[in-house]
Amino acid sequence: MSSRRSRVSEEEINELISKLQSLLPEARRRGGGRASAAKLLKETCNYIRSLNREVDDLSGRLSALMATVDNNSAEAEIIRSLLRS
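Structure (tokenized):
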């Protein structure tokens, strides 16, 4: 009986797939057309990987920028304040 309660209904799965599809740029470009759950999960993994690469790139660029800025300068303070927000 408890195993039945812990299962996710097909309706809940479809709702989660719909929500996930609305978050992915590739799926939004496709419009209202539904992709298979497997394809959507693959797109999600690819999108997360691309976001990770972008974060790594931005982190490297920020590190390079900070290395060229005097820590006591107004520019450094602006960068620190942006990172805090």
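The CA atoms of residues 22 and 28 lie 6 Å apart. The chain has a mean pLDDT of 86.
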